[in-house]
Amino acid sequence: MFRILLRKFLEVFIFLLFIMFVSFLFIRLAPGDPVLTILNVDELSVSQEQVEAVREEMGFNDSLPVQFGNWLLDFVRLDFGVSYSTGQPVMQTLMRALPATAELTIGALLVMLVIAIPLGSLSALHRGSWIDRGSRMLSIVGAAVPSFWLGLILIDMFGVRFGNLPTMGRDGFTSLILPSLTLGLAISSVYVRLLRSSLLDSLSQEFVRSARARGVSEGRIFMLHAFRHSLPPVITVFGVSLGSLIGGVVVIEVLFAYPGIGKLVVDAIRQRDYPLIQGYILIMAVVVFLVNTAVDLSYRYLNPEMKLKEKEAHR
Amino acid sequence: MKTIPLPIPTAKSKKHSWQAIIGLLFALLVIGASLYAFLYLKHDHTLTDLRGRLQGASALHPFGTDHLGRDVMTRLLLGGGQTLGYSLLALGAALLIGIPFGLIAGYKRGWVDKLFMRIADAFLAFPDTIVAIVLSGLLGAGIGNLVLAIVIVKWVSYARLVRSTVLSESQKDYIRIARTNGLSDGRIMRKHLLPHIAGHVLVLASLDLGKIILLISSLSYIGLGAQPPTPEWGAMLNDSRPYFQSRPELMIYPGLAIVSVVLLANMLGDYLRDRFDVKKEVQP
Amino acid sequence: MILSIEELSISSRDRTIVDQVSLAVREGEFMALVGQSGSGKSLLSQAIGRLLPPNLHASGRVMFEGSNLLERKPKEMRALRGCHISYIFQDYQGAFTPFRSIGGHFDEYQKVHGEKSSAIRKKRAEEALESVGLGAELLRRYPFQLSGGQLQRASIATSLMLSPRLLIADEATTALDSVSGHRVLELLARKQAETGCAILFITHDWRHVRRYASRLAVMKEGQIVESGGKHRILDHPQHEYTRQLIEAAPVLNRSLKSGLKEAGTE
Q1: What pTM did the predictor assign?
Q2: Domain A94-314: which topology?
Q3: Where are the domains of chain A?
């Protein structure tokens, strides 16, 4: 199993390297003088000497191979440079913003679980009832609603008209409510339908009837047999839709001005702050890798067949 | 092994017919609206009129005006063309690239297939949003880059779908007979395999359409997609933000437009999926 | 009379599938219910344990140990199932939940029926496996690791573990080859001799049970057309359908259909 992990890590790493290289090229060859970009951000009117000085300092005058060599060296030393806009080391800036993004993501996932598990389960258990039909209709409509629009509506309703939940920034627990709610609602539609169909499939399996014929209670059957059996497809979809989740986090952070790395990178893009963008890419690659690994590990846990077949293959 | 099937009354047949109608309606609506906007609208959507800004509904402006005095209805209708147009563009390009790749990889096998799988795995490692952000970051924000990003990410899933369908079809007799009769590979792929994969691909594409629309409008909202003064719905929502106290409709209309279009696209996709009876392999 | 089905009807919203069926199973006897697919025999057996799918409705009386099962509360039914009334189904693979160990299943069934001591549970599980000729090490394995034959026997072991008074075998040998099928029947007969349980054996082929059954009932399109002692029915069928059923399944040797030797031979 270790070998598979290692191989996956290498794949991601190589792709990452490739992206970094491409971005390196772009910085050097892209339209617009990066030096002017750097200085522009400071909103100073600069003289020609200053421009030249910065150009020399940042190594833009060296030949391309030399620049690339330096860049590689920096990369290996995990030195990702300094942000063009803030002047702070990139990794530091990103790391400081990371907890906010983590909070938001966890909050959204919690909201999603609280919505999807009950609705999906009830829909499957009471197929055809009004709960089932209602939740299915809700999830069909919900899947069409853009998260940022939902956010705007929620802001209008609970931030301005009917309440005063904080709608900007990160200032204690309450400011987490609206963003998490928005994102959680947005992603839950898919999972409600998915859980429902996966459960319906599990509940029709023969082993459920066998357990019932042995006197096992419905509750126990549902939780320990059927529900667990329904998890793999749901987890698969989660792994695949990681992209939308990340995108959703970015949009929500911008909408609510929540100071996470999503907002950071969008600002960086507007300001052409390449080192920061590069740092973001790196972090995301690690995140994607970690999540995919976790998904794989969960398969192994949920399905002993895979775990044992692996072991036997290695003996 | 199932012994007792549950005889659930078939509401499915009813669902089929009205979903089909909705899908058709959707197509007609889109085409109609875009044509209408193109041919008949009196207002230039970029014409700003700062004295007439933020007006409510009136005879001249059925949906009112936005913060720069532009007619909202015009912008809404044209925005539909924008949003939908770019989404279809992205989808089309992804199909154009993905289908041939999948066909060749699945049919020829060998090193072409192995190479393709490696490339596909590498591309799949990155989620679409990240790539969109990265490309925006490198090339500058703009709708063209957004479409490019979407194409880069999406083509892989179509290629894989085509490949797996081709793999299973190749085992069947009609392909073997075609081969032994001397038909060229190209001809087999075009005339025999293509029709079979069309169904699967269509289902996946229509399910993706809604997602792509949402992606384009989301990223346009945060400024990484369509740039002003393009009347794209996501961008319009961004413009409406400072004014939603006084003119909430500026926020409601584009949002409703997005929801309706995506909803119709999804229903079309669901209908197609039911009709072609394709199961979990097509799940996004 | 351990089980007495009285005027049982099972119907869906549109039609009646089982129509006013009456059937009795005596203590310790091997009763065979024979009928073609679609005759309703499986539904009948499921109705006894209240295992019908939710869209089917049962009416009538199913008397077991003095009370009407159709009127008992769900909790009481659960206590009965697996403990007093046990089932064996056609699909042996489906008897076990894929991600749980065999031992986990034995353990769960005992826990659900009130056995609190884990030591006793373990011991009983081992004994149950041994009684069907399997080793105790299988308890740690998962269903996918067992062969078909092992699964059959393990699933029978779970059904018999708590010494039920009535065992309902629904097409238990249908999916097996003749040799395995006979082995299963041998096992069941032996268990019956050991524990004195009654067996209601449901099948579409009377040849499976002619050696073991003492009484037969023939079912056609939701109704019992004939029932009685094995010898009487097989050798002297009264109903046309029974006759057809017997004709359709010729026996190889020269004895009577019920297994008795014909008078005058040998």
Answers
A1: 0.82
A2: MetI-like fold (1.10.3720)
A3: 94-314
